[in-house]
Design goal:
This protein is α+β, with helices and mostly antiparallel strands. The chain has one domain: GMP Synthetase, Chain A, domain 3 (2-Layer Sandwich), CATH 3.30.300. It has 4 helices and 3 strands, in the order αββααβα. Strands 1-2-3 form a 3-stranded mixed beta sheet, covered by helices on one side.
Length: about 120
């Protein structure tokens, strides 16, 4: 029962934080950032926020901009009165897309090598 509540809160936090980053923050480094997933701890005191972005800016600059905006994001969570205790936010780059691209490249190489062997 508690895990279902946490999952609902994760989805709602994702919606709130995504809209805040896209529409209320004016940092140029956060223009093309997409939040992919939020994982709340069991006691809901910590939130790991996974993000991806277009390769326009370096990862370090985006990470710094997200860390700098943590206070504003926590204030937006508090404003919605979604949770009694606002979790500590930590941002992590989501490498899933990058890994998927690498796997696709490997499959393409294997396919081209097999095609060359057949000819």
């Amino acid at each position: 029962m508690a895990r279902i509540r946490i999952q609902r809160l994760e989805k709602e936090l994702l919606r709130i934080l995504s809209s805040t980053i896209n529409y209320k923050l004016r940092d140029k480094y956060l223009k093309f950032v997409t939040l992919t997933e939020i994982k709340l701890s069991n006691d809901m005191s910590h939130a790991k926020i996974y993000y991806s972005h277009l390769d326009q800016y370096p990862d370090e600059k985006i990470q710094q901009a997200l860390t700098k905006s943590t206070g504003f994001l926590k204030k937006e969570i508090a404003y919605t009165k979604l949770m009694r205790v606002i979790p500590e936010l930590s941002f992590r780059y989501d490498k899933v897309e990058e890994q998927a691209r690498n796997i696709d490249e490997i499959f393409d190489r294997i396919k081209s090598e097999n095609h060359k062997k057949e000819n």
